[in-house]
Amino acid sequence: MREKEGDNPHHSDAEMYQRSDADRTFEQSRVAGCLLGGAIGDALGAPVEFRPWSDIEELYGPEGITEPPLVDGMYRVTDDTQMTMFTAEGVIRAVRRARQNRNCDYASVIYHAYLRWLHTQGEELPVAPELVLDGWLLGSRDLYHRRSPGSTCLSALASGEMGSMRNRINDSKGSGGVMRVAPIGLAPAVPDPFNLGAQAAAISHGHPSCYLAAGAFAAIIRFVMEGAHLEQAIARALRILESYEGHDEVTSAIASATWLAERAKPSVQSVESLGQGWVAEEALAIALYCSLAYPDDFLSAVRLAANHSGDSDSTAAMTGNLMGARMGVGAIPGQWLAHLELRDEIQILASDLLACADVADDWHARYPPH
Predict the structure, then answer these.
(1) CATH-assigned architecture of domain 31-363
(2) Which tens digit of pLDDT belongs to each residue from 47-87?
C-alpha cells in the first residue's frame, strides 16, 4: 500500500491554469473566496463551539446562530484561520524556493511557518528565533491574539520535533490537523496536494485518520479549483485516499457524508449523525455534507455547518473553504467581509498564492526562502 511521502499520483501544474482573462479573474475570486469563506465560517462557528445544540437554540432561536457577533466592530476569527494563513505563507515560500532551483522539502517550509504561528501565540520557540522569525506576515499584530489554540498543535510544535507520516510524534487525530490545509489545494504550482496536505497535518497530528483526511481535503479543494463538481472532486480524492494505508475511517466518513447528502434533509440531526467534528474525519465529513446539501448557497451551507454540538468553528471554516472555492468571493455578503478580522492580510495571501510561481527578486523580503 502506498505511503511514500515523495510519491506523486496526481499530476497538475501551472499550465492547467492558463486561461482567458475572464477565467483568470474568476479563479482569483475563488482563491480569495476559499480563504475568506473559511474565515467567515470560523467567525460564525466560534461563539457556539463547545455548546450543545440545545444551548445554541436557546440562545439564538430555532435557526441557531446566523451571523457572527461583532466584537469591537469586527468578526473575530480563531486559531483555525490563523493557522490557515500560516499554511498559505509556507506554501508560497516553498513554491518560490522550488522555482529558484533550490532543493526544497515543502513540508519543512510549512513547519517553519507553523513555528511562526507558535510565536504569535506567545509560546517559546524550540529553535533559534533568527531561523524562522521573518517575513511580512509576522508584522500583522492582529495575528498575535490567542484564540483557544489547540493543545495538540501547541505541544507538538513546542516539542522541537517535526512530525511526519513516517515519524508519527503522537496518535492524535483532532480536527486541528485538517482545518488548516485548504491553501495547499489552492496553489497551482503544488504538484501533489493530497500528499502535501497529509504531510502538513502530520507535522502535529500522527494518526492516519487525521493526516489522510487533510490530504483528501486539500485534494478536493484542488479538484474543485480545476472545475470539477464537488461530487466528482470527492470521487477523485477517494481514489487517491484508498492507495494509502490506514484510510478506512476517512473513507467511511466520506461515504457517510455523500450518502446522507443524497437522502437526508439538511438539519442539525443530520449533521450530528456524522459526529461532532472534534476528530479530523468527522470534521471533513460534516464539511462535505453541508457543502453538498446546499451546493449553490454559501450562507445556508456555513450556517448548517456551524449549528451543532461540536467543533463548530472548524466545520464551518472548512465548509466556507469549499463553498468559496466553488462559488467565488461574490457568494459572501459584502457586509460580512467588511467586518472580517484580518481580511486585508487574507486577500494578500490569496493573491500571492496564485502569483508565487513567478520568480521575482522583490518578493525576497516578504517571503524569505526558508
Answers:
(1) Orthogonal Bundle (1.10)
(2) 999 999 999 999 999 999 999 999 999 999 999 999 999 99
